[in-house]
UniProtKB/TrEMBL annotation:
InterPro entries: AAA+_ATPase, ATPase_Atu1862_pred, HerA-like, HerA_central, P-loop_NTPase. SUPFAM superfamilies: P-loop containing nucleoside triphosphate hydrolases. Pfam families: DUF87. This is AAA+ ATPase domain-containing protein. Residues 478-499 are annotated as: Disordered. It comes from the Bacteria. Residues 24-285 form the AAA+ ATPase domain.
C-alpha cells in the first residue's frame, strides 16, 4: 500500500510528498543547526504518519510529549525505570504495536545514553513474530551516536553507539525505520549517518558540515554555500522516498506545539527605577525568609616554623595491609568475579565490558587483574555463570566438560557449560529463560532455536515427556534431570507497563 505524507510545499507551489512505505525501507537523516526547524520537521512527519504506522520517539529534551494527548502516544519517563525494565517495556511496545515517546529530559547525558541504548536494544531484540513496521525517530542523534569520545564513560558511549548502529544498519529487516536528526553532521558517527538513503538538509554555517551535506546530496562543493542562506523551515531534500534529484522544500504547519518555544522579543515592564529597586531588595508577602548565614570563626593560625616542625616530626603513613582473606590474589579475583556476575544486569552485557569492569574492581583492591587475560576471563565467566562452585571447578569431571566446550564455537560454549553443570549435578534441565540469559538475550524463542541447532550438530539430545525436558550430552555421557522449559517466563514478562 502506497501512502504519501504531505511534508509541505516545493517549488511553484507544488506539494512536497514523502512515500511512507519507501521511507520504512530506506531511512531518513535530517541535519540543521539549532533554530533551523529540525524539530518542526520531525513533528510534521510524526503528525502526518501517526494514523499509518507505529511510532517510537527518542526525545532527549521532552519536546514531543505534547503528541500524546492528540495522537495517543504513551509517554515513557526513562527516569522512572532501570535498564532492564526499559528493555521489557520496549519488547511490549513492539508486541502490542503502541506508539510511545521515551522522555529522557530528567537524566544527564550519560544516563540518557544508557537508557536509550537499553530501550533501542529491547526494540531490536524482540521475537520475530513482532517485527511489525515502526518509525523510530531519534532527535539530537549526535548525543547517542557521537563521532568521538566525550565526557561520558566508554561503556555508555559504546552501548549507545552500538544500539544506534543496529537501528540504522540492521533495523530494516526487523521492521525498524530509523529517522535521525542532528545539529552537526561532523559530530555524528559516520557509520550511522551513512546508512540513511533519504536526506533533508537545513541551514548550517560551518564549512565541514556544509561539505558533508553537499557530499551526501551529490552536489558540487561550490554549491555548499547555499546551506548558509536557507531560512528556518527550508530544507534541501533528496532520496528514493522523496525525489531522485535535490530540490528545496518548505515544511508545512503542525497541529501540536512543543512545550518550549523559541524566545520572542517583548517590551520591558514600565517600572520606575525606585519601584524596581524595591522589587529586587524587599521580600514579597509570601516569600520565605532566608535562612541566617552562619559564619564560623577561623581557627587560630599557627606560625610557619611550628608547622614545619610538625611536618618534620610526622611519620609517613603506613601502607594499608590487605585483609586476611584477601592474602591470596587468586582467591580475591575469584571473589571479585563472583560479585560481578551477582548483578542481574551483567547477564546482558558484553564480555569485553565485563572484563573492563573486572579490571577496575581489581585495581580498587590493589590487584593486577591482567594476570587473568581476556581468554581466561571468558572461561571463568562461563563457568561462574553456569553455576559451578569454586570447589567443583577444579574437579576432573568439570575439566572434562571444559575440554569438550573448547572444541565448540565460542558463542556456544557458555550454553554448553550451563547444560553440563546441570547434568553433572543431576539438576533439572535449565529453562528457556536461563538458556537465553546464557546468550545475553531475553527471548525464550531464541533459546529454543539454539537448542534445536545444537541438537542438529549432534552436541545434545533432547527428550520431552509430560511437559518436562531433559537433555543428554553424548560427548560426556551425562544427562540432566527433567525440568520445566517454561519456568521463570512469568517473572520475566511481568512489569509495570503494557503488562
Amino acid at each position: 500500500m502506497k501512502v504519501s505524507i504531505d511534508m509541505g510545499s516545493a517549488q511553484a507551489g507544488k506539494s512536497a510528498s514523502l512515500d511512507l512505505e519507501e521511507l520504512l525501507a530506506t531511512r531518513l537523516l535530517v541535519q540543521g543547526n539549532s533554530g533551523s526547524g529540525k524539530s518542526h520537521l520531525l513533528r510534521r512527519l510524526l503528525e502526518q504518519s501517526a494514523q499509518w504506522v507505529q511510532q517510537v520517539v527518542i526525545d532527549p529534551e521532552g519536546d514531543f510529549v505534547t503528541l500524546a494527548e492528540r495522537y495517543g502516544h504513551v509517554v515513557v519517563d526513562a527516569s522512572d525505570h532501570n535498564d532492564a525494565q526499559l528493555q521489557q517495556v520496549a519488547a511490549r511496545v513492539r508486541m502490542h504495536r503502541v506508539s510511545v515517546i521515551l522522555n529522557l529530559e530528567h537524566l544527564d547525558a550519560e544516563f540518557q545514553m544508557r537508557r536509550a541504548a537499553s530501550f533501542l536494544g529491547g526494540l531490536f531484540d524482540c521475537d520475530r513474530d513482532y517485527w511489525y513496521p515502526a518509525l523510530v525517530v531519534v532527535d539530537e542523534a549526535q548525543l547517542f551516536a557521537p563521532a568521538a569520545a566525550g565526557d561520558v564513560s566508554d561503556e555508555a558511549r559504546k552501548a549507545s553507539l552500538g544500539a544506534m548502529t543496529n537501528l540504522m544498519c540492521r533495523g530494516r529487516k526487523r521492521g525498524l525505520a530509523g529517522v535521525i536528526a542532528t545539529q552537526r553532521l561532523a559530530k555524528l558517527a559516520k557509520n550511522v549517518a551513512a546508512e540513511a538513503s533519504n536526506f533533508l538538509m537545513g541551514r548550517t554555517f560551518l564549512d565541514i558540515d556544509m561539505a558533508r551535506a553537499s557530499d551526501l546530496l551529490g552536489m558540487e562543493r561550490k554549491q555548499a554555500e547555499m546551506f548558509r542562506d536557507l531560512k528556518r523551515g527550508h530544507f534541501i531534500a533528496l532520496g528514493p522516498a522523496i525525489s531522485n534529484r535535490p530540490f528545496p522544500i518548505v515544511i508545512g504547519t503542525v497541529e501540536t506545539s512543543p512545550r518550549a518555544t523559541s524566545p520572542k522579543l517583548m517590551p520591558l515592564p514600565e517600572t520606575p527605577p525606585a519601584d524596581a529597586a524595591d522589587l529586587i531588595f524587599k521580600p514579597g508577602e509570601n516569600e520565605p525568609a532566608p535562612a541566617p548565614r552562619v559564619i564560623k570563626p577561623l581557627p587560630p593560625q599557627a606560625a610557619t616554623n611550628d608547622i614545619l616542625q610538625q611536618l618534620a616530626r610526622a611519620k609517613p603513613p603506613e601502607p594499608e595491609l590487605p585483609e586476611e582473606d584477601d592474602a591470596d590474589p587468586a582467591v580475591s579475583m575469584e571473589r571479585i568475579l563472583r560479585e560481578l556476575i551477582a548483578d542481574p544486569d551483567t547477564a546482558f552485557r558484553s564480555v569485553a565490558v565485563l572484563y573492563q569492569d573486572f579490571l577496575v574492581r581489581c585495581r580498587m583492591k590493589r590487584l593486577n587483574g591482567r594476570q587473568l587475560d581476556l581468554a581466561a576471563f571468558k572461561r571463568k565467566l562461563a563457568t561462574a555463570r553456569a553455576g559451578v562452585s569454586v570447589e567443583a571447578e577444579h574437579t576432573d569431571e568439570w575439566e572434562k566438560a571444559q575440554g569438550v566446550a573448547e572444541r565448540l564455537p565460542e558463542d556456544l560454549q557458555p550454553l554448553f557449560l550451563l547444560l553440563a553443570r546441570a547434568a553433572m549435578d543431576k539438576a533439572p534441565c535449565p529453562s528457556d529463560t536461563d538458556i537465553a540469559r546464557a546468550r545475553n538475550s531475553r527471548s525464550p524463542r531464541r533459546a529454543r532455536g539454539l537448542l534445536d541447532y545444537m541438537e542438529s550438530r549432534g552436541l545434545i539430545v533432547m527428550r520431552e515427556e509430560d511437559g518436562l525436558r531433559s537433555i543428554t550430552l553424548p560427548d560426556l555421557g551425562w544427562e540432566t534431570a527433567p525440568g520445566d522449559p517454561q519456568a521463570g517466563e512469568e517473572a520475566v514478562n511481568q512489569g509495570d507497563l503494557f503488562g
